[in-house]
Amino acid sequence: MRIIHIAAALLHDGAGRILLVRKRGTEMFMQPGGKIEPNEKPCDTLIRELGEELNLHARPEACLFQRQIEAPAANEPGYIVRAELFTLLWNGTVSTAAEIAEARWLTPHDARALPLAPLTRDCVLPLYAGIS
């Protein structure tokens, strides 16, 4: 199995909502984040991707590493996504940019009504239930 190594954010507002994004040309919602470049630290990847995709400029110390998780890739058949997952409390604004078509603040319950990437559905939402 081929692996895509990413850094992803479980972005939450402290009031029970998480932020999910949908990339252009896709249907599934997922965590914001992106591929880790060679010699890049996962936290640096996350900060870069949040800035590029959501115009969100977080401090590295605000990104709290949770664990490594993996699931089948949502948009690339035959691949596994291995994510370095961070939590980030965010009460500021976000605006979609780059390849992000849509961003939504949702409760985990409401999120389950959307088409979700396997990583979000099977790993992130259950993890959020345990830490919220």
Order of helices and strands: EEEEHEEEHH
Task: Return Rg in Å.
Answer: 13 Å
Largest sheet: 4 strands, mixed
Q: Percent helix among the residues?
A: 10-25%
Task: Work out the helix count.
Answer: 3
CATH level 1 class label: Alpha Beta
The CATH homologous superfamily name equals Nucleoside Triphosphate Pyrophosphohydrolase
Could you report the average pLDDT, rounded to the nearest whole number? 94
**Total separate domains:** 1
* Beta-strand percent range: 35-45%
| Low-pLDDT residue intervals, each spanning 5 or more residues | none
- Tell me which CATH architecture applies here: Alpha-Beta Complex
Number of strands: 7
Structural class: alpha+beta
Distance between the termini: 33 Å
Shape: globular
Strand order of the largest sheet: 4-1-6-5
> How is the CATH topology named?
Nucleoside Triphosphate Pyrophosphohydrolase
General description of the model:
With 132 residues, the protein is of the alpha+beta class. It has a single domain (2-131), classed as Nucleoside Triphosphate Pyrophosphohydrolase, CATH 3.90.79. It has helices at residues 42-54, 108-111, 118-131; strands spanning 2-12, 18-23, 29-30, 33-35, 64-72, 79-89, 100-106. The model has no long low-confidence stretch (mean pLDDT 94).
